[in-house]
């Protein structure tokens, strides 16, 4: 009886923290978020050690080194951003974008359907074209390719055992999952992060690839002016242990250490990890 009471108390605590995380996200402002993280100095294509070019290079390398390709790629927690699927869109017949918030899904739809967006993605497309050995002038073709392969922009909740509505994905799962800065930014502790990782793994085929990008040592980030969103601070060993516990073979882990001038006051991140893992 006493044990049952403890379990109920734990469930209630979890519900409270998940609910407070959800409440935090109601104030998320895609325009501010994009400005904080996806303009210089964090997105400076003249500098190799700027965060965004580093992330784009990791994604490009991951897809090409193992020649990862297939039918379906799912991006979990896309936010208002497109960079994370600019390499993958060439290698999959169908790309599914997803986010918890309608404002973010609207931002993505607006670019997909009308070419309108709160930031100009052209320099991003050009950079990825160059990584692929194409001329930067091929950027418009890449943008067209991305528009043509994105089949859906869906609601997602990584705290649910079934994060996406099942009718959009074959029961065996996607060939590849990408997720960037989502799991640690929506989890109040390591246990919740691990559970979320377990939930999204259900979306991936056995033998499929997970490309996971995330923050290291971060306790908060700004989702709008005055909106401090709590983040579970992770270290490298926790990322490796979490992937192993969720049934992945870790193939590659790259770490980016934040240079002092990338600390622009919108978070307290110390580094970024890029993990390539295979579901066993
Ligand atoms: N992927 C983007 C990037 O690389 O910048 C956005 C990352 S942003 C830090 C975290 C994202 O998680 C937000 O877009 C937010 O709406 C989304 N999110 C919030 N709660 C979520 C949940 N329960 N399940 C999935 N995504 C969630």
Automatic annotation (TrEMBL):
Entries under InterPro entries matching the protein: NNMT_TEMT_trans (IPR000940), SAM-dependent_MTases_sf (IPR029063)
Name under which the protein is recorded: Phenylethanolamine N-methyltransferase
Transmembrane portions of the chain: none
Record's keyword terms, sorted: Methyltransferase, S-adenosyl-L-methionine, Transferase
Family (UniProt): Belongs to the class I-like SAM-binding methyltransferase superfamily. NNMT/PNMT/TEMT family.
């Amino acid at each position: 009886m006493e044990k049952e009471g403890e379990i109920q108390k734990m469930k209630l605590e979890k519900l409270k923290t998940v609910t407070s995380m959800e409440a935090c996200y109601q104030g998320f402002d895609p325009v501010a978020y994009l400005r904080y993280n996806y303009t210089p100095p964090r997105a400076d294509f003249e500098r190799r050690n700027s965060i965004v070019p580093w992330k784009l290079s990791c994604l490009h390398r991951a897809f090409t080194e193992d020649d990862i390709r297939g039918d379906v790629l799912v991006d979990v927690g896309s936010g208002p951003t497109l960079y994370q699927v600019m390499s993958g869109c060439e290698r999959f017949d169908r790309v599914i974008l997803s986010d918890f918030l309608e404002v973010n899904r609207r931002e993505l739809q607006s670019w997909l359907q009308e070419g309108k967006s709160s930031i100009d993605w052209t320099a991003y497309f050009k950079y990825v074209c160059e990584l692929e050995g194409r001329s930067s002038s091929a950027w418009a073709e890449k943008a067209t390719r991305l528009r043509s392969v994105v089949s859906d922009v869906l609601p997602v909740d990584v705290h649910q055992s079934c994060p996406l509505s099942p009718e959009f994905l074959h029961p065996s799962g996607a060939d590849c999952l990408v997720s960037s800065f989502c799991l640690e930014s929506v989890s109040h502790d390591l246990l919740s992060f691990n559970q979320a990782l377990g939930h999204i793994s259900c979306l991936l085929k056995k033998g499929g690839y997970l490309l996971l990008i995330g923050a290291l040592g971060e306790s908060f980030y700004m989702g709008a002016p005055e909106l401090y969103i709590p983040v579970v601070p992770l270290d490298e060993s926790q990322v490796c242990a979490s992937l192993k516990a969720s049934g992945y073979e870790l193939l590659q882990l790259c770490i980016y250490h934040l240079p002092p001038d990338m600390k622009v006051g919108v978070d307290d991140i110390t580094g970024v990890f890029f993990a390539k893992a295979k579901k066993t």
